[in-house]
Design a protein that fits this description.
alpha/beta; Substrate Binding Domain Of Dnak, Chain:A, Domain 2; Rossmann fold; 4 domains; six-stranded parallel sheet; 26 helices; globular; binds Fe(4)-Ni(1)-S(4) cluster, oxidized; binds iron/sulfur cluster
Amino acid sequence: MKNHEKSIDPASQKMLDKAYAEGIQTVWDRLEAQQPHCGFGELGLCCRHCNMGPCRIDPFGNGPKLGVCGANADTIASRQLVRMIAAGAAAHSDHGRDIVLAFRAAAEHGEGDYKFKDEKKLLALASEFNIPTEGRTIQEIALDVSDIALDEYGMRGQKLQFTKRAPKVRQDLWTSLGVDPRGIDREVVECMHRTTMGVDTDYVNLTLQGIRTSLSDGWGGSMWATELSDVLFGTPEVVKGWSNLGVLSDKEVNIVVHGHEPTLSDIIVFAARDPELLKKAKEKGAEGINICGMCCTGNEILMRHGVPIAGNFLQQELAIITGAVEAMIVDVQCIMPSLPTVANCFHTKVISTSPKAVFPGATHVPFDEKNAMETAKQIISIAIDNYPNRNQGRVNIPSDRMGYMAGFSVETILGALGGTLDPLLDAIKSGSIRGIAGIVGCNNPKVRQDHNHIALAKELIKNNVLVVETGCAAIASAKAGLLLPEAADMAGEGLAAVCRALGVPPVLHMGSCVDNSRVLVVAAAIANALGVDISDLPLAAAAPEWMSEKAVAIGTYAVSSGIYTVLNSPPPVLGSSNLTNLLTAGAEGVVGAVFAVEADPVKQAGLIIEHIEKKRTALGL
Ligand code: CUV
Ligand code: SF4
């Protein structure tokens, strides 16, 4: 495959050419080396949950139809799907836990490096949970909020707080199905239990547990991550900044923050403003310190501070290949184990910071939350010391960069609308906006980088569908210029007029992957305002280049919340026609929404538009 076929992004194409010229292996080479992928794995027909196996089911010929224990294709495929959901939910929710703990530390000690940047949001949460606020300090109130958050992870078995944000009909549906999540950790543990040898065998019963677990992510762990990150680091407001590898500087110390948790990246942004460090950088011959983001932790600091974003998932190796990165600081999730090897070809230091994610070949500097600012400065110092090692002769920073407007939290959207949802509802009712689609999720080298994200977004806005985005999808749109108000020119007449009146782009960046919880909140608010269920709304979602187990959890809570969700490729379930039918057809009668699988982005848009029009008709619009 030619390099320009691997990505639509000119910056990526150039760095792939450089990788080739210099003999550096990237994710695309490793994908090629893996061909052909294991067919049993692709279909979800292998199991290694016990030592009587590993077993595999022959989907075609007269090979075995049962594992040694007697498990059939339905059981094996659904157990695997449930484990994927559990892993994805665990990732988001464990990220959420770290935010809860940082929040609690701020409540307990007050004087630490984490402060409450948005006390108004904290008070709003307190009132949502009926916590008294009169005559109490912000710390006392925060402690009560953190008690509730900690309980949510436990096993008290009460309904998760944020599920009460869903429309009443949706809550009643979940209760009647028996899928009210009872505790964030509990659901993940129960998934692991029920999918071990000789426990749950029924694919429907297993899928219901998958649904319950995904809800504990979307309306639980992820939502806690978003809400308390906003309290600690500030609720995003409209910001402008730059995207793509062109944000790297040829004269400054370049530090790329990659991973997920804002507890690290947000502090790094402020630590880099320290005059002492700046002085040190100048002594080393640099003109300054340039902090850039990558993937979702990049989205966190992009949303709150307009920090430049160097790229999305498939650009992590390519950023190092520019030869201009002094340090890539990583915490958890979506960090390729290959980074230290790629960095070995250059002066770049990969600095791992989480006790949960250690990378052989990287420099490990454990991030101490209790001493956050000091650790951040220490890490930045390592990068500065590394600047003189940069070989300017091997530096090649692509000039490609693109501006963005972002920061569309629920609060920002309401603000842009003048304080109420009414103008948006009116635009939907009048038909100038046909509906809303969320495009989320990763890159995957099996798909030409960003191609599906961009083709789908363009097709939707052209047809007057407002697009909201998170994760690597949103970064793709930033790089393609879709997050600029001028992109309204690419939108249909109705949507363009609304965007121009409000001064916003037709594609709204709502944050990182945990911030898909913001999309749920908007969906619930619209449904509540119209007095209907989420599944009645002209609303859809897509993950057109997904790769992570987290995306499976997100897709499942979207569908379980009533949102029709389109994937470019299926999770490994096709080996069970019963499970496949349940997910793509049967679920309609259970949760009021289904998954669809379609590889072509223009056809994906067609499916979404068809769905939106069907819902409009049913609502009498
Ligand atoms: Ni959490 S999960 S590749 S960074 S969106 Fe990007 Fe987003 Fe997928 Fe990872
Ligand atoms: Fe085989 Fe059953 Fe063991 Fe899985 S649980 S490895 S299907 S015997």
